[in-house]
Every structure is written in structure tokens, then in C-alpha cells.
Amino acid sequence: MTQTSRARKFGLAVAQMGPVHLADSRQAVVKRLVEMLREAAARQATFVVFPELALTTFFPRYWMTEEEAVERYFERAMPNADVQPLFDAARELGVGFYLGYAELTADGRRFNTAVLVDRAAKVVGKYRKVHLPGHDDHKPDAPFQHLEKKFFEVGNLGFPVWNTQDINVGMCICNDRRWPETWRSMSLQSAELIVLGYNTPSWNIHWTEPVHLRTFHHEIVLQASAYQNAVWIGAAAKCGSEDGFHMIGSSMIVAPSGEIVARASGEEDEVITAQIDLDLGTTFRQHVFNFAKHRSPDQYRLIVERTGAGEPLPLPPEARG
Ligand code: ING
């Protein structure tokens, strides 16, 4: 088999964050992000993935009014004075990054958002979380809330793919990773690398779920999605116990083979890196998941036409046996 002259190697880092407590200032948090960016650059990474809602504690766990949430937890601009040190360090080091944060738009709309920043520290992309888990009502008897449906609108930017650093990069956020549509929407746009942040409580407030399943489900959705879409994945947790509320770690880099090639071992700030080979994705896209050769969208219409599960379709005559 002829070897390509130069493999398309790319230094990818995932910067896992330990807890951000209610008492932690944005300045203190940004200092941690800058330290991890520097460590990633020192380890030859040119792109760093930070978590979802990276600048604050996971505030949807607390009941409050939207106005209170906006006042304390939302960013009116990106970059802004608080995060400028991160953008300055990124420009100095020539390292791009993904950053998740709570976005307040100029016309007052609220989204769970992530930006894609290039090696000159320019914001080149924005994504707004589509799959919002949890609820919008107060559950006073629950050990904590999960009020993403109260504090955020459903994302309205679709699932874009950008070309940055000569790679087709897509973004998603946390719960998005559980839905196959997320990944297929981007692999159909020839994404090669998909990056995401997450804040995943280890407790389930809706039923008594064994705690190990949180990590198990996190693993299978990333490994299956990487393989089924022939993409590299970088996934960054904010984790550990935030004021007593625990969230899972297991930040990881997953290859298009579905193999986990790097994984965080703790629940504090931790940088994991890999020199990823983008030609691996090309191989899987050519031989296994060659969409043009094997897919039949006319047979899958239901996936787009229906929102909730409904009645079985009328059987085609020849399907009646
Ligand atoms: N957190 C969780 C996540 O999707 C969740 C919420 C956990 C939903 C487990 C369903 C099952 O990882 C966020 N922020 O989406």
C-alpha cells in the first residue's frame, strides 16, 4: 500500500477543568485556563478544547430567576475583559481553542454557546447548544436542579463545520453528544474533528441510576460516534465536586476507529494531548463509512420528518411477508 508522503498530523489538546465553585471569580478561572493553554502549547498542541460553561460553576443546578442568572453567569461579549488574558496567551503562543460559555446576545437572548478561536486568537466560529436536557420548572424536592430549559433557548445555528488550521472542524456541547443526529449533521459536511465540552452530573435526579452508567454512556456515545462518522473527537469535562455537587471527568480524545487514545485520569485541571493523524479518518470514510456509496436517505425520511416517536408506518405491500 503506498504511504502518503506526509501524514496530516495535528497536535490536539483537551483541557479538563476541575470544579469551579460559586466563590470562584472569572479572573481566577481564566488564570487556570491560561495555565492549561501554556501546558498544551509546551506539549506541541496547536488547538485546545475547554469545557462547556467553562467560566463559571454549572449554574443550571440552582433555582434562580433568568435575570439573576444573566447578571451572574452570562457573557455579553466574547472576548471580553475577563477572558482577554486567554485570547492574549493564545495569540502569543499561536494556539487555537474551543471555549464554552453562557451567551447573552445584544437583543437579550440566552444560549449555551461555544466559540471556535483560531491561532491568531480570532473568533472564527460560534455554535449554540441544540439538545437542552433537564427542565424549566422548580423541583424543590430534587437534590439539585437541571434548568437548561429555563436559562437557555434551543440553539439556532444548526451544526456548522469550519475549516481552521486546514482541518474541517465541527462543534457540539454536552447533551448533544448523546444524539446521533448531531454527529451525522457534521460528518455529512465532511467534518474531520469534532470538539465539545460537557458538565455531566454523576447523579441522576429523575430515577435511581447506578452512578457508573454516567461514565459508561459518555464513553459509548463518543466511541460509537467517532467510529460511525469517521471523525476524531476531543471532549473536555468540567468535573469533580462543585460546592458538593459531583460531575464526571473522563475527558478524552477518541480516534475514528472508536479507540480512546488519551483520557484524563483525575477530576482536577488536567491537560491530555495527542498528535492525531487525520488520514485515519480519511481511511474510514473511504472504505467503511463511504456515505455517497452506501447511504439511502430516501429510506430514512422519518429521522427528519418526525420529532417524537409515533405510530408504525403503514407497511409497504412487500414488507407484509
Ligand atoms: N449535562 C448532562 C449530559 O448530557 C444529562 C445532562 C446527563 C442528560 C445524563 C441525560 C443523561 O451530559 C449537560 N450539561 O447536558
UniProtKB/TrEMBL annotation:
CDD domains: DCase. InterPro entries: Aliph_Amidase/BUP (IPR050345), C-N_Hydrolase (IPR003010), C-N_Hydrolase_sf (IPR036526). The keyword Hydrolase applies. It comes from Bordetella genomosp. 8. One of its GO terms (molecular function) is hydrolase activity, acting on carbon-nitrogen (but not peptide) bonds, in linear amides. Keywords: Hydrolase. The keyword NAD does not apply. Residues 10-278 form the CN hydrolase domain. It comes from the Bacteria. This is N-carbamoyl-D-amino-acid hydrolase. Gene3D superfamilies: Carbon-nitrogen hydrolase.
